[in-house]
Amino acid sequence: MFDMINMMPSNEIHHLYIDESGAPSLNHRDKNYTICGVIVRPYQANKLKIKADQIKFKYWNDTHIPFHSIDIGKQKNDFLILKNPVTQRNFLMDLYGFLSTGSYRCIIVSVDKAKAQQQGWDAKKVRNEAIDTLLGFFISFLSQYGLPGQITIESSGGQDINFYKRYTVFLSKGFPSLGLSHEDVKSFLTSISFVQKNNHDIETQIADLFAYPATRQFLHDEGTKTIIPGSYENKMNNILKTKLIQIRGQKSIKRLP
Question: How many structural domains are present in the chain?
Fold first, then answer.
């Protein structure tokens, strides 16, 4: 089967790693809820970890520093070192190079909660619509190329059960819009698992790296925020554009509602 990630045939399992930015709650200070998925195969994930660890050791002498997009953008916590212009320039060059050349693909789904509330959505619907859209993209990708897939989510307490519930909906009802029965979906989606933050999975870190700038890009396009050309957010989104999967002619990025 055709593999969009390496442009070569492969039936190896494709893993979807998911991370969230913001929260579904309509009362949360962040008026956007964004989830990012990163698709990799096991051997690609190992290569990504090695390259990421090399960058982390270069700047911190420690491979346990998680890449966190907001901290990088705001130069805080572990990324206070970026206040030094030379360090910032060198680190960002390494980060951009790592993200540009790594073998992985992305899915982005973001909800404008103000618009969602105007349409009568509550927090449950915000969450479910975002998850269903993301999983729909992944299932479409797997079915298009006849690939097996697994889902891995960074554990975040109460949200875990929500992802699991939406996962079981697809397993029980199938994907009617694609003509997929529940048995078809089960043949593509083989499992779902939850990992702790202290696993330091580079795949979920990459998902985190893109969720924040992607949200800013949506706000920029909608005229409520400005992204400065050449800024961190601008460069991250330029990389993201090259990593989105194409599913039946459609890019795997969507703003809801």
Answer: 1
Q: Which residues pair with 17 in a beta bridge?
A: 38, 152
Domain range holding 233? 2-256
Residue 4 CA: distances (Å) to CA of 1, 14, 103, 182, 242: 10, 11, 10, 25, 12
Q: What is the CATH number of the domain that holds 44?
A: 3.30.420.10
Residues 6+ apart with CB under 8 A from 55: 91, 94, 95, 98
Q: Angle, nearest 10°, between helix axes 42-60 and 202-221?
A: 80
Tens of pLDDT, residues 180-238: 899 989 988 988 888 766 667 899 999 999 999 999 999 999 999 999 999 999 999 99
171: β partners:
none
Strand extents, DSSP E, the chain: 2-3, 8-9, 14-21, 32-40, 105-112, 149-154, 189-195, 246-247, 250-251, 253-256
Residue type for 192, please? I
The residue written with tokens 């698709």 in the block is: 39
Q: Which of 194, 216, 223, 226 is nearest to 34 (CA)?
A: 216
Question: Pairing state of beta strands 32-40 and 105-112?
Answer: antiparallel
Q: Are 145 and 2 in contact (CB under 8 A)?
A: yes
Do the beta carbons of residue 63 and residue 232 sit within 8 Å? no
